[in-house]
Amino acid sequence: MNTMLIAEMSMLGEICLRLVMAVLLGGLIGWERAGTNHDAGLRTHIIVCLGSATIMVVSELAVLRFGIPSELLRMGAQIISGIGFLGAGSILIDGNRIRGITTAAGIWTTACIGIAIGAGCYIVAGVVVLLLLFAMIALRSVSSKLHLHGNQFSIKFTLEDKVAMKNVLTLLTEMNVSVKQIKTVTDDDNFIAMNLNVVLPMGKEIGEVMIALSTCEGVSSLRFA
To answer: Which CATH homologous superfamily contains domain 151-224?
Structure first.
């Protein structure tokens, strides 16, 4: 009797440890998301991780108490497929931008971490959390630089006069397009060849900018590279 009681107490302690670990590790991921002003932040990630861990704990108890070996894998598989609906809810389309993909991926991975914790794989869960935080925090600046580089373009113009140059620069300012470099050359016919290196703001497409520039008075030709 004492042996059974000790075993049950040990199992209860293990379950509590798994659930607490789910709260702590899920909270770490949620803390990073909340720090970058995302809707799915601290509480969402804690709840996702805790819920996933709970399902796995219940699955293991079902196997131990009722001898249903398939239950352990079946319930975990349902978490993986079902969590996609929650992740999809965090993806927003804002004009030409799609926001929330990283958060949705983080929610899905947080569910996987909860499964690992619920199964008692603490080391695996801890390593995944560290790698996930590395991808979200340490690589954020690298991702921003890559995105910035992807929004850089070189636009070449043929202008009739300096008034046209002023019109072009004024329009770019109104569209929040940053001009990083200007090069101009005047030919024998007094046409101005101008080369601009520009950075587009978030959500702005180069086609939209080119259409607007083509309407500027005094612009004879333009193309981008």
So the answer is: ACT domain (3.30.70.260)
